[in-house]
């Protein structure tokens, strides 16, 4: 029984996942409503899944949309350990970016240590971007930016001007991605985010 208790104490992976709701994003910005990484990750999963479906149905692609949803769900999990680092800080220069990547790797290993050994390989490839799935991660990154744009739209609708410049810079990044699936989503689905509930109905 004692050995079993020690083993159970080490199985902290899913308990750590439940703490995603305590990690807020946009730490340098004045928010009318805080957004945590749990909320953000679900939205990224929705959008990444949609981009995969759009690719397959509108552009004759062959993408595993369900895998995109899984990658989206887990794409920010290491922030349970690292916290959310504001984008202007994270990308300030290559030295900071490379150092943060190392910290992310340490965080990933710490989280994986909370799983039984034989389960770890199933999660290793979803906690951080991998070269083997580089093509899929491109869609997750696009979904991440679209989710950030949605946050800007929501804050602006509440009269918060702090997000105006963020919206401009995020839109530029999205446009520079030059992905037809992203353009399709932007043209067909983003306008609805600017409507009230009554207008949507």
In total, how many domains does the architecture comprise?
1
User: What's the level 1 CATH class?
Assistant: Mainly Alpha
The largest pleated sheet is described as: none
Q: How many runs of DSSP E, i.e. beta strands?
A: 0
Over all CA atoms, what is the radius of gyration? Answer: 18 Å
Shape: globular
Q: Average the pLDDT over all residues and give the rounded result.
A: 90
The low-confidence parts are: 1-8
Helix and strand pattern: HHHHHHHHHHHH
CATH architecture: Orthogonal Bundle
CATH topology (fold) name: Hypothetical protein af1432
Percent of residues in beta strands?
Answer: under 5%
Helix content: 55-70%
By secondary-structure content and strand pairing, the structural class works out as mainly alpha
- At the fourth level of CATH, the homologous superfamily is Hypothetical protein af1432
Number of helices: 12
Distance between the termini: 58 Å
